[in-house]
Amino acid sequence: MKVVVCENYDDLSNKAFEVIKEQVVEKPNSVLGLATGSSPVGMYQDMIKDHKENGTSYKDVSTYNLDEYVGIDRKDPQSYYTFMNENLFSGIDIDPNNTHVPYGNTKEDCEKYEDAVNGVDIQVLGIGQNGHIGFNEPGTPFDEPTHIVDLTENTREANARFFDNDINKVPTQAITQGIGTIMKAKKILLVANGANKADALKAMIEGDVNIECPASVLQKHPDVIVFIDKEAASKLSK
Ligand SMILES: O=P(O)(O)OC[C@H]1O[C@](O)(CO)[C@@H](O)[C@@H]1O
């Protein structure tokens, strides 16, 4: 696992963007695994800016997102489908038919998505304060495929900021790629910033590989690059 401590959020976003750009320029029909949450927003802004200024094209790129709330309308402003359209897809030349965000709440919905997610070249990840990746909460087996998950109180509290600061408005379940799905990606690019991620990053990078910190599984992946700011790195021993 390569860990790069960056000056600040803009710096880490830009470094992460450069990795994506290199991938897409080298292989125009790349498959990107994408994440929501606030962490990758700066990287998405850099992708949009670069597309507009330098013409980097995403027309042959396919994307598969990690997760979506259960029971939310796709057009809801807080759905991850809306998030991706607003924060990335509408700003680049990607073919909407090549973008995929999971949806549904049945075993069949999960199996269908699991079968569709194939050949991901780079998987972008954020990390939850409790070490979750995608919506794989602590205790999730490492070989789990796409599944429906009950969100923890901690995750719902962290996401209440998007729901008028009212935890009761935060959905209680999500559909998420499993850790087994995520680990199949050829390369993993994790971005995180802020002191509230410092414990999770310490457990992910320096802790035992343990299902209590889902992100610790990344220690077993052969090609992981982590871009974090100084605050997020503040609890690392070196
Ligand atoms: O980037 P944020 O907003 O801190 O979120 C971190 C993680 O939490 C989630 O948004 C889910 O709660 C993940 O999708 C994301 O990786």
From TrEMBL:
It comes from the Bacteria. Gene3D superfamilies: 3.40.50.1360. Keywords: Carbohydrate metabolism, Hydrolase. Pathway: Amino-sugar metabolism; N-acetylneuraminate degradation; D-fructose 6-phosphate from N-acetylneuraminate: step 5/5. GO terms for cellular component: cytoplasm. Pfam families: Glucosamine_iso. GO terms for biological process: carbohydrate metabolic process; glucosamine catabolic process; N-acetylglucosamine catabolic process; N-acetylneuraminate catabolic process. SUPFAM superfamilies: NagB/RpiA/CoA transferase-like (SSF100950). Residues 11-222 form the Glucosamine/galactosamine-6-phosphate isomerase domain. It catalyses: alpha-D-glucosamine 6-phosphate + H2O = beta-D-fructose 6-phosphate + NH4(+). The active site is at D67, N130, H132, E137. GO terms for molecular function: glucosamine-6-phosphate deaminase activity; identical protein binding. Transmembrane segments: none annotated. Its EC number is 3.5.99.6. It is an enzyme of class 3 (hydrolase). Belongs to the glucosamine/galactosamine-6-phosphate isomerase family. NagB subfamily. Catalyzes the reversible isomerization-deamination of glucosamine 6-phosphate (GlcN6P) to form fructose 6-phosphate (Fru6P) and ammonium ion. This is Glucosamine-6-phosphate deaminase. It comes from Dubosiella newyorkensis.
